[in-house]
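quick one before i forget lol
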Amino acid sequence: MRVLLSKPGLDGHDVGVKVLAHGLKEAGIEVHYTGLRKSIEEIVNMAVKINADIIGLSILSGTHLVLAKKMKEELQKRNLNFHWVVGGNIPAKDIDELKKIGANEAFATGTKVSEVVLYFISIEKNKN
């Protein structure tokens, strides 16, 4: 499984996504990271380039709904069907809305790294 973790927008805090990357790598998952302050277009370009199985958007800036809509639009525009998730500073009340927009899953504030790792592993198992 190849996962692309990303930091869209102007958010400059990436400790959490790096902790998640470490947890995923320990579970045997190949992880790529975009670095900070990437546009949705840059993230999708990199996902295509590395042939990602999952795109993870890490958002702490409060712009998760706007960025999720941009992700959906960009994927539709390019006729791409990536599995994508959103996590970070996400209020529990926004989880359903993020899924309605098109995220396959959303992880609210306080979600444990182990829960996210198990989710990614379940996606890989269900693929086979």
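fyi The longest strand covers residues 54-59.
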